[in-house]
Amino acid sequence: MKKKFFGTLLAAALVVTQVVSVFAAGSRTTDVTLVGESAGYYEVSEGTAETFSYLHESAPQVEAKILAVNAGKETLQSIAELAPELAKELEGKSLITKFFDLEPINGGIRTEDGKYKVTLSVPALTKALKDVKLLHYSTDRNLWEIVTPTDVNYANKQITAEFIDLSPVAVIADVDESATEGNSTTGSGTSPKTGVKSDWGMYMGAAALLLVTAVVVMRKTKKECD
After folding, report:
1. Do the Cβ atoms of 26 and 19 come closer than 8 Å?
2. Who contacts 207 (Cβ-Cβ below 8 Å, separation ≥6)?
3. Are 161 and 149 in contact (CB under 8 A)?
4. What are the residues facing 169 on neighbouring strands?
5. pTM of the entire structure?
6. What span, in angstroms and rounded, lies between the C-alpha atoms of 220 and 151?
7. Which H helix or E strand runs over 74?
């Protein structure tokens, strides 16, 4: 009977662990993904040290700044140290996504004037975010720039923009505090928000489920023994 009890408890623990693992893995997905036609013509990569290693020789200060901002060690506004001309535009803005790498494949999708047209899915996009822009560092032109999207679709959480060239990009915006009640996507400008809610509630729920399962099984086993 004890073997049956422990076997049942182990099975319950395994189920809970699998559920928790699935959700935890989902929380590690990128801030943005490519959608529609863009999915076959561009590539998005997480903004890691490995991803941006190509900046190590050509723009080491940019590389260091991007990684520091992504890690929450420096603010979005600190970008102005490298690009003073953007200081006014960055003032009051919040970092909605971390910096990610965006590159064309298969030639990308070109507009009539030769720009790259890209549509991104941004889970953190809500109507609480105003004046949405894209902060871009051009490795080809060695400069920082702010790109205004050609379309911001709040319903589908998608942003379409056109770039002269592609490399590190981040989504930035003004945050309407009056519209963020209960909204976890609000950014402070220091710690990038990913649009993923905290996992703690989920883990606590899983633990509670396991505990309840153990109690039920123990009672059932005790009755069977009696």
Report:
1. no
2. 16
3. yes
4. 100, 136
5. 0.69
6. 59
7. none
Q: Cα separation of 38 and 106, whole Å?
A: 11
Exposed / middle / buried, residue 102 (Cβ in 10 Å: 0-12, 13-18, 19+):
buried
List C-alpha distances in Å: 30 to 82, 98, 130, 141, 195: 26, 9, 22, 26, 10
- List the structure tokens of 122: 């941004």
- The answer to whether 192 and 94 have CB atoms below 8 angstroms apart is no
The token duo for 129 is: 């975010």
H/E element holding 96?
A: none
Rounded CA gap, 213 and 215, in Å? Answer: 6
Which tokens go with 116?
């790259």
Supply the DSSP string of 109-177, one letter for each residue: -B-TTSPEEEEEE-TT--TTEEEEEEEEEETTTTEEEEEPPSEEETTTTEEEEEESS-SEEEEEEEE-G
pLDDT attached to residue 222:
54
C-beta separation of 168 from 100 below 8 A? yes
pLDDT of residue 191: 41
pLDDT tens, the chain, 226 aa long: 545 544 544 444 444 444 343 333 332 335 899 999 999 999 999 999 999 999 999 999 999 999 999 999 999 999 999 999 999 999 999 999 999 999 999 999 999 999 999 999 999 999 999 999 999 999 999 999 999 999 999 999 999 999 999 999 999 999 998 775 554 443 333 344 433 333 344 444 555 555 555 555 556 555 555 5
Give me 85's structure tokens: 């001309």
